[in-house]
């Protein structure tokens, strides 16, 4: 039977990581997958995580199953981190959260929930978006449609076109928004633009689904939730897919959450029952470790403040590399204005390099960036920046 199975193409992001690992060039540079790296090119375990793990290992009493929806205290803390303990959503008990294996797990549970409970709705995704978005919804049998987002001419947000397109989305459809640090462009709406987006979404009766994977990597934990805050208005519905891969550096622990905000607490209870239903048929219940680490940190004032400090240091390093990249491009005489990179947010920037140039960076210089031209700025360091800029100059 298996002799007719066709080989699938490698994943456009994780496949590059594999190719990078197999590249024997000692000077190779990996700017593909979105992981933070320190000045030495290492993706560190945060100190607060190490301390939380020490406590967990010594206190752990059982390996018995978690509930289908995960650790209750973790779920509560996730909602608190997003919008604050006093937010109306929490006071009105209309938000429910399930612990999921990473942000991808959250997206898939959301997709399964939508497919079963709101059949026929389409999901509108920004152009461009994270390449896994369309795959996840397709796997759940949901059609995705693009809306304009990136303005090539200004290397900025195509806000007018985006709003025009969203005005035409049929009521009841789902609009996927990147909560902050847009992947792959690094371009976010301003707080004022978020208010306009939220107004349109509510007026047109669309369902916002926020992919929230980079809280704290843009301007700060609170600042990065400006879009969520604009959408989370009294009575309004919302889905949020959280990931703690990046801001806690817990990539391989697969720790995330799906929060559904319903119109009232009775509807929220019904939604939770359906989310549990979707999870049970998918992976049954989540693994505990990553969620326990996040819970331990967020529920301890000292560890939480240590985490905020470590998160700030990661953000500052990335922003420092943005400036250094722009300066080094000028220094080596790159004949193109890359100053826009300094204004973008989070791990990623769109370099504007075309697929041929991306291929040449890889084949001639062993520099790995995603085919769309996306660069993981967090992979840049004082050591590799000059080589990178000279290579970009050569392929341009
Ligand atoms: C990325 O976009 O590089 C990350 O979110 C990792 C992934 O799973 O693709």
From TrEMBL:
Residues 27-392 form the Aminotransferase class I/classII large domain. GO terms for cellular component: cytosol. GO terms for biological process: L-phenylalanine biosynthetic process from chorismate via phenylpyruvate. This is Aminotransferase. Its EC number is 2.6.1.-. Homodimer. CDD domains: AAT_like. It comes from the Bacteria. Belongs to the class-I pyridoxal-phosphate-dependent aminotransferase family. The lineage of its organism: Bacteria, Pseudomonadati, Planctomycetota, Planctomycetia, Pirellulales. Its cofactor is pyridoxal 5'-phosphate. Gene3D superfamilies: Aspartate Aminotransferase, domain 1, Type I PLP-dependent aspartate aminotransferase-like (Major domain).
């Amino acid at each position: 039977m298996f002799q007719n199975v066709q080989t699938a193409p490698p994943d456009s992001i994780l496949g590059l990581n594999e190719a990078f690992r197999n590249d024997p060039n000692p000077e190779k540079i990996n700017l593909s997958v979105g992981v933070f790296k320190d000045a030495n090119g290492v993706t560190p375990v945060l100190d607060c995580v190490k301390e939380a793990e020490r406590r967990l290992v010594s206190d752990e009493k059982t390996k018995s199953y978690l509930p289908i929806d995960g650790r209750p205290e973790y779920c509560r803390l996730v909602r608190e981190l997003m919008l604050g303990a006093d937010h109306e959503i929490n006071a009105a008990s209309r938000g429910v959260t399930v612990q999921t294996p990473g942000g991808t797990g959250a997206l898939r549970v959301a997709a399964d929930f939508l497919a079963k409970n709101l059949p026929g709705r389409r999901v509108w995704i920004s152009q461009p978006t994270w390449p896994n978005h369309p795959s996840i919804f397709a796997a759940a049998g949901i059609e995705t449609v693009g809306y304009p987002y990136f303005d090539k001419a200004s290397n900025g947000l195509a806000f007018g076109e985006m709003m025009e397109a969203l005005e035409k989305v049929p009521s009841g459809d789902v609009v996927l928004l990147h909560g902050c640090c847009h992947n792959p462009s690094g371009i976010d709406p301003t707080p004022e633009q978020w208010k306009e987006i939220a107004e349109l979404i509510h007026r047109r009766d669309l369902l916002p689904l926020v992919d929230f994977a980079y809280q704290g990597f843009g301007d700060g934990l609170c600042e990065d939730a400006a879009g969520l805050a604009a959408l989370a208005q009294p009575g309004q519905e919302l889905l949020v897919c959280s990931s703690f891969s990046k801001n806690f550096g817990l990539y391989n622990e697969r720790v995330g959450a799906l929060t559904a905000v319903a119109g009232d607490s009775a509807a929220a209870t019904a939604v939770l029952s359906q989310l549990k239903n979707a999870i049970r048929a998918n992976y049954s219940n989540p693994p505990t470790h990553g969620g326990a680490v996040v819970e331990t940190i967020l529920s301890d004032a000292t560890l939480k403040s240590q985490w905020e400090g470590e998160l700030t240091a990661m953000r500052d390093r990335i922003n420092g590399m943005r400036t250094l990249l722009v300066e080094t491009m000028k220094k080596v005489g790159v004949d193109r204005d890359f100053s826009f990179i300094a204004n973008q947010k989070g791990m990623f920037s769109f370099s504007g390099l075309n697929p041929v140039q991306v291929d040449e960076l890889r084949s001639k210089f062993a520099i790995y960036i995603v085919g769309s031209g996306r660069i993981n700025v967090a992979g840049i360091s004082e050591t590799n920046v000059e080589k990178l800029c000279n290579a970009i100059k050569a392929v341009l």
